[in-house]
Amino acid sequence: MITKTSLFAIGMSGALLALGCQSKKEPAPNALAQIASSKPSLMGAKPATVTPPSTPAKPSIRRPSGQEDLVLTAERRARIEAAYPEAKGFLDGAELESRLYERRLPRGKDTKARATLDALAQGKWVLFTGNIMNPTKDGFELALRYTPRDAKDRLGLTSTWLGIEFSGISGYDSSQYRAGEPIAILARYDGKQRAVAGYDLVLSNRWFVETP
Fold first, then answer.
1. Range 154-167 burial, b when 16+ CB lie within 10 A, else e
2. Residue 211 pLDDT > 60, yes or no?
């Protein structure tokens, strides 16, 4: 027979059982977040921020603006010879032209002019300066005058010249030049109006300032 006392006992037992089951339940997610935020050591370490390495800026290159910037000075010769000792004592193209003028070569006689040039400069290092012609990926041309211009000719149209072909020039980049722009080249003249080894003094930053 179930008495009031028995019913009370059963009710108490059910209540205690319900409390026990509730105590075994896991905390709600928001409770876990509150616990973790109060104890940073329980949180996972934040990934380190990786900063990509900065690309060093390319050094600016000063370019000749005209013939007045292509004059060989004692300071330039010293710097160039220090950088390229194999070319020490190189010929200045401007002086080479003067030596050709002294020969009083006939205008338009390129074969005789080339033979004279080869006798003076073949196998030697020469500083060639002037305005670049026909720039391509593999090379370009420069003019070397062998007769002077007339005194009244301001443009130099009366002078005659040989076209020197250049290839294998270290530092040369055709994308950096347009036809007619000033250039300074130190090259070994191999004869027959060709030079197949040398250095672009402008793009290598040897003409105006010393490379670090």
1. eeeeebbbbebbbe
2. no
